[in-house]
Amino acid sequence: MVERAELERIEAELSKYMDSEVEFLLKIGNYLLSSGGKRLRPALVLTFSKLLKGENEERDYPLAVAMEYLHTASLLHDDVVDGAETRRGKPAANRVFGNETVILTGDYMYANALYLFSVYGDMDMIKNVSDSVKKMAEGQLLELKKIGDIDMEYEEYFKILEGKTAVLFGSCCYVGTALGGGSQKQKESAYRYGLNIGLAFQLIDDYLDYAGTEEKLGKPVCNDLREGKITYPLLSVLKGLTPEEKELVKKVIRDLNPSQEDIEKVKQLVYQKGGMTKTIEKAKELVNNAVCELENFPNNSYLKKLEELAKFIVERDF
After folding, report:
1. What residues pair up with 90 in beta bridges, in sequence order?
2. Strand (E) positions, the chain?
3. For the chain, is the Cβ count within 10 Å smaller at the N or the C terminus?
4. What's the pLDDT score for residue 28?
5. pLDDT tens per residue, range 226-259
6. pLDDT (tens digit, 9 = 90+) per residue, 92-112?
7. pLDDT tens digits for 50-78?
8. Which residues span the domain enclosing 308?
């Protein structure tokens, strides 16, 4: 969605603003930043800005980088909370450096993002992004509370998704539109576009947790199930399960170390009852909602890129 030169600049500035005098902190931050990632969040900031003014200016890049810092910080904290073994195909930072230092590195990245917004942003952007960070914490706490809960409701599930992924996507689009000089109506439409593609993105992540491969995902398949988390593919079929099938699901999500055989049985239930199809259908619905929000923007090449991104989210396999 962004040109190669822009992507290279994003990578350079991600390192540039990691300027702590504490060498160990830099080592941990760069460990995760250097392991790649799609860089969708900074790309959204830059693209929405260009959508309105045709090109990116100097202050666009620090704020695009700030959004990636927020994302990276949330990953560092999530991996500690989840006790993750791997991230993007290599050992998770908490396994390499320890929980305490990883948490503090995440804190540093949150603070660094806030500093960049204080220098290059404005109060409207800071208010929007701060609200998203608050919701990210709420989403993580709710997810922890719902682990092993077979009675989870759709409303709770989507609140978790909103916090885990969607609000940060929304803020990226909001900030980019603000940088482009967009109206309040356009900023709100951009936020809803980001919210919808963020929800769709996480739904596809949940889908791939059942359908993907460890090689492409960079982590074990059915990892959420092992951690006791009910995601959309399973949630969408729960009400249609027999009492015996529900007992199997309950056993797996409440077992600290479920057997591979039981995990495979639950996976087959999800496939047989149509959970995978329902997940794709819901993701497509959200993507369509996102594309509708773009009607408030100029019809140019950057708009087309945003439409293509929305469709890519449903079609991706990693």
Report:
1. 87
2. 86-87, 90-91
3. C
4. 83
5. 999 999 999 999 999 999 999 999 999 999 899 9
6. 889 988 999 889 989 999 999
7. 999 999 999 999 999 999 999 999 999 98
8. 4-315
Measured CA distances, 5 to 9, 34, 192 (Å): 6, 17, 28
Task: Determine contact, residues 76/106, Cβ cutoff 8 Å.
Answer: yes
DSSP letter at 296? G
Sequence length of the chain is 318
Residue 93, C-beta contacts closer than 8 angstroms, at least 6 positions apart:
28, 31, 32, 76, 79, 87, 102, 105
Based on the structure, what is the number of domains in the chain?
1
Query: SS3 string of 18-67?
Result: CCCCCHHHHHHHHHHHCCCCCCHHHHHHHHHHHHHHCCCCCCHHHHHHHH
3-state DSSP call for residue 86?
strand
CA proximity to 114, closest of 132, 124, 129: 129
User: Which CATH number fits the domain that encloses residue 86?
Assistant: 1.10.600.10
